[in-house]
From TrEMBL:
Residues 3-31 form the 4Fe-4S ferredoxin-type domain. Gene3D superfamilies: 3.30.70.20. This is Ferredoxin. PROSITE patterns: 4FE4S_FER_2 (PS51379). Ferredoxins are iron-sulfur proteins that transfer electrons in a wide variety of metabolic reactions. PANTHER family: FERREDOXIN. It holds the Pfam family Fer4_13. It comes from the Bacteria.
Amino acid sequence: MAKAMKVDPELCISCGACIDTSPAVFDWDDNEKAVAIVDQIPENVEGDAIAAQEGCPTDAIKDA
Ligand code: SF4
């Protein structure tokens, strides 16, 4: 079963690390916060997405 993730905008400090690490899954929203741009994370980029989640300095990326 594919994973899904979401960003808590209250915790995101807009550092951009997740977008650098996993650009297929994360991008900026209109408020300059990171946001997950896919509902289900494709298997071929799941490793990058997990690395982005683990690397977020504020633990803003949650399993959805
Ligand atoms: S790594 Fe975390 S704090 Fe940085 S932009 Fe992504 S969600 Fe926001």
